[in-house]
Amino acid sequence: MLITFKSPAAPDVIMLENLAEYLLGIIGKQLTARGVITHEDIPAAIQKLETAVATDKKERAEHEGHFHEGEEGHHPHEHPVGLAQRAFPFIDMLRLAQKHNADILWGV
Length: 108
Hints:
By secondary structure, the protein is α+β, with helices and mostly antiparallel strands. It is 46% helix and 18% strand.
């Protein structure tokens, strides 16, 4: 299922339900049929997501040291998309909403 986040300050952000649930969980919200992130909640939400992204980047960098690319017997593989790439459109929306003192809604 797709979840659409809306704000008068930014273009709509559409994501899969599991990602929406995960990102909302990071900021302390639950994915319900309808919801809102008020402009008062946005600064803390941005901080929590940025912290989660930084932690994910650090863990991914540590994990990359364990890859054996180029060694005999190991096949190259793609690196999975990280939280930074997945969360960027939502964080961008939060920043724009903060700048314009606007709320973000879903399920409307």
